[in-house]
Amino acid sequence: MTYLPVPFVGDGLSAVSSSLQAGPYGILSLTAVVWSVVLPFSVYKKFYAFSVGYGFSVFAVGLALLTVFPSDAKSGILLAKACVFYGARLGSYLLLRERVRKRESPIKNGSISSRVIFSLSVSLFYALLTAPVLYALRKPLVSSISTGGAYLAWLGAILEAIADGQKFVVKQANKDVGDTFVGPTSLAYRISRHPNYLGELLFWTGIFVGGAPSFGKNVAPWVCSGLGLVGIFSIMIPSTTRLEKAQKEKYGGQEKYENWKKQVSGSLLPFVK
Fold first, then answer.
1. What residues does each domain of the chain span?
2. Burial grade of 183 (CB within 10 A; 0-12, 13-18, 19 or more)
3. Region 153-179: what's the mean pLDDT?
4. Signed CA dihedral, 234, 236, 242, 245: sign only
5. Model confidence over 119-158: pLDDT tens digits?
6. Cβ atoms of residues 78 and 150 within 8 Å
7. Model pTM greater than 0.70?
8. Do residues 185 and 256 make contact, with C-beta atoms less than 8 angstroms apart?
9. d(Cα 273, Cα 265) in Å, to the nearest integer?
10. How far apart are alpha carbons 111 and 263 in whole angstroms?
11. Could you tell me if 126 and 58 are in contact, meaning their C-beta atoms sit under 8 angstroms apart?
12. Which of 56, 76, 53 is closest to 153 using CA atoms?
């Protein structure tokens, strides 16, 4: 059996680091960083690519970019730190939730080779989502738009963290109530009926806006980052619609549920039905 020499690993990391800093292969390098996280989770359980692997891969991208780029790119660094917080929190939460639920995989695992290919395609999508942070660090600009985007990303990450925490606590305290609606209906759930989804969209919108001033007239950043943003919206909006339908079928007619729907009219955006 032939083993790869250790310097090969070092050379690979150096190549990824250099490609992140400059050159046309930045997205491929981001994909490599993401894939290093998503692949093992996907091999373990395919659907983890969408959950635990998703969260921790965003964390890995943020950490990698903070390591590669200097700390004087203020808005870009703020975006990268938002990715670290968002990814670490979401990955840890989803891992805890899966351990508590102990549910069977919602999708078939398939062969190892199919999971490897699947994880690569998913990793490319996550790389496109985080691409604006890369471009913001490559070409740091002092801009109220980039700073505002970074703060929006942080707002979304914090809102989603609060909403997920509320829901987890309430669900754990009411595990044996069956089909009775128990909420949560306070704090974040006074803003929107699905504030965790709202936080998700605010986070990625903030990431895009924060990076946009650095795109300039270069087509590649606009296309790559735009595909990521459109992709996450095309996932989250139908997911909200499906969840609304499922909740209505399960809880429709229950007084607490109906009163909450009257008080919080927006299923996703505040005040927008």
1. 6-263
2. middle
3. 93
4. negative
5. 999 999 999 999 999 999 999 887 899 999 999 999 999 9
6. yes
7. yes
8. yes
9. 6
10. 48
11. yes
12. 76
